[in-house]
Design goal:
The chain is α+β, with helices and mostly antiparallel strands. Helix content is 24%, strand content 24%. It contains 15 helices and 26 strands. Strand 18 and strand 19 form a beta hairpin. The N and C termini lie far apart (92 Å).
C-alpha cells in the first residue's frame, strides 16, 4: 500500500490553512435573505394577537400636560387603549432622560410623547392618536443658539469622555507672532440620521418575562436599560436585533420606541409594535447638533504651523447633556507648538442631540480642513504639501506616539490616483461653458478603539463550527467578517463556520458604534476560536456528541490603557462643477485613500468607505435642518424636505486603502472603518467649490441659493 501524508485524509477538525480568508472579498452571508425578503426586521414579527401603537407628540415647546381627553379615540373601532402620563405604568428613572416617557406631565420640548394609542392596526392607531385631545399649561421656552447667549458654558467633558478643553503653548501669543494667519468661522446646521428602517420595536410579555424585537445597534444595552426601568432581572429580558435597517448612530442606545412598546404590551396584554413615524424622528431619536466653529491658524513662512486655535460652540438639551466634540480633531491632526481646543455649549428647550455617524470628527474636520485650505491659499502653498509638512510624529493633544500613522502615504497615493499634479492651483482657472470646474482635498481621521466583549466557539462532531456573540449587524457585514475571523483562527473553510448574532441570550457584547464593532467583537471571536483550535489540536479521537466549546472574555485586554494614540487616517479628493446660471453644484469625482489597519473584507470595506463618502456628499450639498426658535421644532421633518443624496447625485466614487500593519490594536490588526469615510468629504467638496469659483463658502450645505447669491455678489 502507498503511504499517504498525514493530512491527505484529515479528521473533520484537522486544522488547515485558511487560504487568505481575511481580506478576501467575501459576499455577505445574509445578502440572499435580504434580497429575497425573508430577513425579518423589528416590525415584521407576526405574533398572535399583535396590536400597533402610535405616539401623540407634544404640540408645545415647553410646558405641562393639564389634561388628556381620550374619549373620542377610545370610541373608534379597533382601538384597545390610550396610555397617558396619568395612567401609564410607573418605571424606574432611567439614566437617559429621553426614555422617561409618559412618566410625568412635564413637557421638556416639542415632540415629546404625551400619549400613546394602541389599536388593532397601524391605521386605527394613527386615527386614535389624532383623536386624542391634550391640553397644556404653556411655559416660556428658549430654543435658539445665538451668539452671546447668556447661558453658554464650557463643559468639563464633551461627548465620549473627551476633555472639554485642551490647551498648551500660549496659543494667543504664538498666533500673534505668526507671519501668516487666518481667522475664520465655519457653520454646520443640525443634521438628521434618517435610517431606511425607522425606529421600531415589537414587545411581548409572557408572565414576568419580556421579549422585544427592536431596531437597535446594541441589544445588550437595550436589555440592561429595560431590566432597570421595569425593575426586573436581566435574565427575564430577551432582546432580538437580528436585522437592522441602518442607524447611523441614532440607534446606538435605546430610544423611546422600545420603552413605549413594552409599556403598551404590559398594559394591553398583547404583543405591540411601534414603528415611529418618520416625521416624528427628528424630535425623538437625536440629531447632530449644529456647530459654529472659529478656527485661528498661524504659520511661519515655510508653512509650519505656529498655533492652532479651535473653538466649537453647540447646543445641548435640558433633558440630557450631549456636547458634540467638534474641536477634538485639532488635537490629533497637525504638529503645532501651541494649541487651544475648546468646546462651549448652551442647554435649550429642544429635542436632545445625540450620536450621528462620526460625531465630532465629521463637523470638526470640515471646519479644520477648510481653514487649512484657506491657510494654504494665504501661504501660496499646495494644500497637499501643507498637510504633509505639518504631519506630527506624536499626537499633539496627548503627546503619545501613534500606533501607526500613514496619512502622508494616503495623501501621496490619493494625489497620484486623482491626477493632482495636473491641477492649475489658481481659483476659477477652468471652465466648461457656464460650468466652473474645481478640485479640492481634505484629510480624515477617526479614533481606533475597542471595548470588552464575550464570545463562544463550538466545534461539532460533523466538522462544523458555531460562533456565538451578541453583536449587531446594522448593514456593515458584521456576520460575514466575524465568520472570516473565526475561520482564519480555526484554520477552517468559511462554509464550515456558522455565526449567530443579534440575540441577548448569546454572549454579551457592546453596541455597533464608534467604529468599535468589528475590532471589539472580532477580538473576542478570535480569542475563543484560537483557544478552541488549541483544544482540538490536543484532543485525541473523535469529539463527544455535544462537541467542544470555548468561551472568551476580553475584559482587561480590549479596555486596557494603551501607551499609543490609535487612529485611522485618510485623504479625500473631489472634483466639482458649479453652474453659474443655477448655482447648482455637481460632484463629478470623489476619491478616498485610507489607512485603517488590516482590511478584513475588501468587499464590505469598500462599501463602508464609499457609503461614508456619499453621506459626506449629502452633508456638503443637500442635508441641513432648521430649528425654528419660535416653535422649538425642526422644519425639515421628513425626506421630502430633508434631502439625502439620490442615485443621480452620486458621482464616480473610488475607495482605496494602504496596506497597514499595526500591532497595537487587536489580534486582527484592524481599525474601525464605518465612520472615517464621511469625515473629510465635506471639506474636500467645499475646498473644490472654492477652487472652482474663487469664493469661500463657510456654511453648509452648499445649496444653489447660497452658491448663486455668492456668485451674483462677486459679479
Amino acid at each position: 500500500m502507498t503511504a499517504h501524508p498525514p493530512d491527505e485524509h484529515p479528521t473533520p477538525h484537522t486544522r488547515r490553512p485558511a487560504g487568505g480568508v481575511l481580506g478576501a472579498a467575501v459576499e455577505r452571508r445574509e445578502g440572499s435573505l435580504k434580497v429575497g425578503g425573508s430577513a425579518r426586521y423589528a416590525g415584521e414579527y407576526q405574533l398572535p394577537g399583535r396590536a400597533h401603537a402610535w405616539p401623540v407628540p407634544a404640540e408645545v415647546a415647553r410646558g405641562r400636560v393639564t389634561g388628556v381627553d381620550t374619549s373620542a379615540a377610545l370610541a373608534l373601532p379597533g382601538v384597545f387603549d390610550v396610555l397617558t402620563p396619568g395612567d401609564a405604568p410607573r418605571l424606574a428613572e432611567p439614566e437617559d432622560g429621553t426614555l422617561a416617557v409618559l412618566q410625568s406631565p412635564d413637557v421638556p420640548h416639542r415632540g415629546w410623547c404625551v400619549a400613546l394609542a394602541v389599536a388593532e392596526t397601524p391605521e386605527a392607531a394613527r386615527a386614535a392618536a389624532r383623536a386624542v385631545h391634550v391640553s397644556y399649561a404653556v411655559a416660556p421656552h428658549d430654543a435658539e443658539l445665538r451668539p452671546g447667549h447668556p447661558d453658554i458654558y464650557e463643559p468639563e467633558v464633551a461627548n465620549a469622555g473627551f476633555p472639554g478643553r485642551v490647551e498648551f503653548g500660549d496659543p494667543e501669543a504664538a498666533l500673534a507672532r505668526a507671519e501668516t494667519r487666518v481667522d475664520v468661522v465655519y457653520r454646520v446646521p443640525p443634521l438628521h440620521n434618517h435610517p431606511m428602517e425607522p425606529h421600531t420595536s415589537t414587545a411581548q410579555w409572557d408572565g414576568d418575562r419580556l421579549t422585544v424585537y427592536t431596531s437597535s445597534q446594541g441589544g445588550t444595552t437595550v436589555r440592561e436599560v429595560l431590566a432597570h426601568m421595569f425593575r426586573m432581572p436581566e435574565e427575564r429580558v430577551r432582546v432580538v436585533t437580528e436585522h437592522v435597517g441602518g442607524g447611523f448612530g441614532s440607534k446606538g442606545t435605546p430610544r423611546p420606541d422600545v420603552v413605549l412598546a413594552a409599556l403598551a404590551a404590559r398594559r394591553t396584554g398583547r404583543p405591540v409594535t411601534l414603528a415611529y413615524p418618520r416625521r416624528y424622528l427628528p424630535t425623538t431619536v437625536g440629531h447632530r447638533a449644529p456647530t459654529e466653529q472659529r478656527l485661528r491658524l498661524g504659520a511661519h513662512a515655510d508653512g509650519r504651523l505656529a498655533a492652532v486655535l479651535h473653538e466649537a460652540t453647540t447646543h445641548s438639551s435640558r433633558v440630557r447633556e450631549f456636547v458634540e466634540q467638534a474641536a477634538v480633531p485639532s488635537r490629533v491632526m497637525y504638529a503645532t507648538p501651541a494649541l487651544l481646543s475648546v468646546h462651549r455649549a448652551v442647554r435649550l428647550d429642544i429635542p436632545g442631540p445625540s450620536w450621528m455617524r462620526a460625531p465630532g470628527e465629521a463637523p470638526g474636520m470640515y471646519a479644520l480642513e477648510s481653514a487649512l485650505d484657506e491657510l494654504a491659499d494665504a501661504l501660496g502653498m499646495d494644500p497637499v504639501e501643507l498637510r504633509v509638512r505639518n504631519d506630527p510624529d506624536r499626537e499633539p493633544g496627548s503627546g503619545k506616539p501613534f500606533s501607526s500613522r500613514h496619512l502622508v502615504e494616503c495623501l501621496h497615493e490619493g494625489a497620484r490616483r486623482f491626477g493632482w499634479a495636473d491641477r492649475d492651483p489658481r481659483p476659477r482657472s477652468r471652465a466648461e461653458g457656464p460650468l466652473l470646474i474645481g478640485t479640492g482635498v481634505a484629510a480624515a481621521t477617526y479614533p481606533a478603539s475597542s471595548v470588552p466583549a464575550t464570545a463562544a466557539a463550538h466545534a461539532l462532531p460533523d466538522g462544523t463550527f458555531t460562533v456565538r456573540i451578541n453583536a449587531t449587524d446594522i448593514g456593515t457585514g458584521a456576520r460575514t467578517v466575524l465568520t472570516q475571523i473565526a475561520a482564519d483562527a480555526l484554520g477552517a473553510p468559511l462554509d464550515r463556520v456558522r455565526t449567530e448574532i443579534g440575540h441577548s441570550d448569546l454572549p454579551s457584547a457592546w453596541l455597533a458604534g464608534g467604529s468599535t464593532g468589528t475590532a471589539s467583537w472580532g477580538w473576542a471571536v478570535h480569542k475563543a476560536c484560537t483557544e478552541l483550535a488549541s483544544r482540538l489540536a490536543g484532543h485525541p479521537g473523535p469529539l463527544p456528541a455535544d462537541g467542544l466549546e470555548t468561551r472568551a472574555d476580553t475584559a482587561g485586554e480590549a479596555d486596557a490603557d494603551s501607551p499609543y494614540a490609535r487612529h485611522a487616517f485618510g485623504a479625500q479628493f473631489a472634483e466639482v462643477a458649479v453652474d453659474t446660471v443655477t448655482g447648482e453644484t455637481r460632484v463629478r469625482r470623489l476619491l478616498g485613500v485610507f489607512a485603517a489597519g488590516r482590511i478584513l473584507n475588501a468587499r464590505t470595506a469598500r462599501s463602508q468607505f464609499t457609503g461614508g463618502m456619499i453621506m459626506g456628499l449629502g452633508m456638503a450639498l443637500t442635508e441641513g435642518s432648521t430649528l425654528d426658535p419660535l416653535f422649538g421644532d425642526f422644519t425639515e421633518a421628513d425626506l421630502a424636505s430633508y434631502h439625502v443624496p439620490a442615485h443621480a447625485d452620486v458621482p464616480d466614487v473610488e475607495a482605496h486603502w494602504i496596506d497597514e500593519d499595526d500591532p497595537h490594536l487587536n489580534p486582527m490588526g484592524s481599525k474601525g472603518i464605518g465612520e472615517i469615510g464621511i469625515v473629510g468629504t465635506a471639506a474636500a467638496i467645499g475646498n473644490a467649490v472654492h477652487h472652482a469659483t474663487g469664493i469661500r463658502f463657510r456654511e453648509l450645505p452648499l445649496t444653489p441659493d447660497r452658491i448663486l447669491t455668492g456668485l451674483l455678489s462677486e459679479g
